[in-house]
């Protein structure tokens, strides 16, 4: 039966919603629901939709919008601050992964030639930007060090694929010129985008700033203009959309654009994942065998090309394992690459089918892996230690500090703790020698130690870390992290664990929900901080200032407090 595009889109959305509700009931990731929905209604399932192309074009809009918003939310300063870790790891992962993958696929298969094995190796070296970023965004891990390293590697992977596609037509007879042309196109894209965003967009956006609709339409126009220009140059549309978002991220209208585009993006991204589910073939024993081989090669190349490099750079077990886990799946661009190879006669239909099935298998598996990466790290880290792979010094403070003076423990270090340390430095500097911070972010550890603050590298949810850090001798223990930020624990669980190690300390914990406070007090908390109450009090003061025509003075007071602040986490 021939369906119109509207009917096909409606079928996709209904199927995604029905399977999504089921996954929600059984507590499975929504991403899996969308892939399953696509398989069920697609040409390999119940055949409600037999022509995937009818939905593909619409779904690609969602991919462009998603990457545009990723660019809007990127902090280039932080990305550049992690530049060495990103650049070195990405180069080793890409070229090491391609080299090792080529050797393994040439030896094992399923490619029939060394050229087809090269296509498979390049495909296996690429990870899915869409899947990873969506999951990290949902977990609020995009701005963590591991998240920034992961996204940075993904960006360089995409650049590599673009360059590979530029030389792909000449693989049977390699030449230098296509590679130089590809580099020139990337440079032209970046140059034009930067020039327009620097000199043309600011006055235009300033002109329409009082019209929110025009700001939104202007931002979308900029996104699709750059995507179209990239496509015109023969580059990836997604790269153009990502670049458009990055260059717009410094504008004062970013938050408003993100808020308005989110709902539009979610609709199109749902279609994107449903469309991906449609390419999943019906499993056969041949597919299953080679899918497992391909998946094993991909995971092996991630492990040997990511973890050792980050360990060598001194980032410790956690920051080395998490990016490798995050990157353990196949990119959508890999399927595009293999399809192009098929058009050139270099790749067989069987190889593409095997890879498509591996894509689905790894998408599901890596989804669980990313959502549970903290638990995986906790299980693997002790084995690495037994094998003689050193972690950052866990449970030991910075040399030169008297452990007996560190009576105020800060468990975990994020925004609130950063502001607290700044206030202590300004108002109560005599407290600084008494502070001891426990955190597992190497960047945070280095910055705090540079300020002369005692830091212990470790996971606050681990009892051994707390014991070795000397939590039993603490006078005051502070945890300012919310339950959504604590990985593998909650404030209640952490409180009970700390109280069992120290019965006399004053323990201050965080509560997002007001009805959590009584439970925390009953478990032994000395004081429960509820940020919403503090914000409500401040908002009431602002409303009073407005009523008394003192808002200008209130603003000046806040600006004075913000002036010259130099926090560990801005």
From TrEMBL:
Keyword Hydrolase attributed: no
Statement: the UniProt record of this protein carries the keyword NAD: no
Membrane topology, from the record: Multi-pass membrane protein
Main location, first listed in the record: membrane
Subcellular location: Membrane
Start and end residues of each Cation/H+ exchanger transmembrane domain: 14-366
Family: Belongs to the monovalent cation:proton antiporter 2 (CPA2) transporter (TC 2.A.37) family.
Annotated protein name in UniProt: Cation:proton antiporter
Species name: Luteolibacter soli
């Amino acid at each position: 039966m021939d369906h119109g595009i509207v009917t096909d889109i409606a079928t996709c959305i209904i199927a995604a919603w029905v399977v999504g509700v089921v996954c929600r009931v059984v507590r499975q990731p929504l991403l899996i629901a969308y892939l399953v929905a696509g398989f069920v209604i697609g040409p390999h399932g119940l055949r409600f939709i037999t022509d995937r192309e009818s939905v593909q074009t619409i779904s690609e809009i969602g991919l462009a919008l998603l990457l545009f918003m990723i660019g809007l939310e990127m902090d280039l300063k932080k990305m550049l601050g992690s530049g060495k870790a990103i650049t070195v790891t990405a180069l080793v992962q890409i070229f090491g992964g391609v080299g090792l993958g080529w050797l393994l696929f040439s030896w094992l298969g399923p490619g029939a030639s060394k050229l087809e094995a090269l296509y498979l190796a390049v495909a296996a070296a690429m990870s899915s930007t869409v899947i990873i970023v969506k999951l990290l965004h949902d977990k609020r891990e995009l701005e963590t060090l591991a998240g920034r390293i992961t996204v940075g590697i993904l960006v360089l992977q995409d650049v590599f694929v673009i360059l590979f596609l530029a030389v792909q037509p000449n693989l049977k007879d390699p030449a230098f010129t296509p590679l130089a042309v590809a580099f020139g196109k990337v440079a032209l894209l970046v140059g034009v985008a930067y020039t327009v965003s620097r000199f043309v967009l600011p006055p235009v956006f300033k002109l329409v700033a009082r019209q929110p609709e025009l700001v939104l339409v202007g931002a979308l126009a900029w996104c699709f203009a750059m995507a179209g220009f990239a496509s015109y140059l023969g580059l990836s549309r997604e790269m153009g959309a990502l670049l458009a978002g990055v260059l717009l991220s410094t504008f004062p209208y970013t938050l408003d654009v993100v808020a308005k585009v989110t709902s539009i993006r979610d609709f199109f991204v749902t279609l994107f994942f449903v469309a991906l589910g449609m390419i999943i073939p019906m499993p056969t024993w041949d597919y299953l065998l080679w899918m497992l081989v391909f998946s094993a090669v991909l995971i092996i190349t991630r492990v040997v090309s990511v973890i050792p490099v980050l360990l060598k750079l001194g980032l410790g077990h956690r920051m080395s394992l998490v990016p490798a886990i995050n990157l353990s799946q196949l990119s959508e661009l890999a399927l595009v690459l293999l399809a192009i190879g098929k058009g050139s006669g270099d790749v067989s239909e069987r190889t593409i089918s095997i890879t498509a099935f591996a894509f689905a298998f790894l998408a599901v598996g890596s989804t669980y892996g990313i959502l549970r990466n903290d638990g995986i790290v906790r299980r693997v880290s002790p084995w690495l230690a037994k094998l003689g792979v050193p972690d950052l010094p866990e449970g030991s403070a910075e040399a030169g500090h008297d452990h007996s003076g560190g009576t105020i423990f800060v468990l975990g270090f994020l925004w609130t703790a950063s502001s607290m340390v700044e206030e202590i430095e300004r108002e109560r500097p005599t407290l600084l020698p008494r502070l001891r911070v426990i955190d597992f972010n190497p960047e945070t550890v280095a910055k705090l130690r540079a300020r002369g603050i005692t830091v212990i590298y470790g996971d606050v949810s681990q009892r051994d870390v707390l014991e070795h850090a000397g939590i039993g001798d603490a006078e005051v223990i502070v945890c300012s992290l919310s339950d959504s930020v604590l990985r593998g624990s909650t404030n209640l669980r952490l409180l009970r664990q700390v109280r069992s190690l120290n019965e006399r300390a004053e323990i201050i914990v965080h509560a997002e929900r007001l009805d959590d406070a009584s439970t925390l007090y009953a478990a032994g908390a000395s004081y429960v901080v509820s940020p919403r109450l503090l914000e409500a009090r401040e908002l009431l003061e602002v409303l009073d200032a407005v009523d008394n025509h003192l808002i200008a003075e209130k603003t000046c007071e806040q600006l004075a407090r913000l002036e010259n602040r130099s926090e560990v986490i801005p």
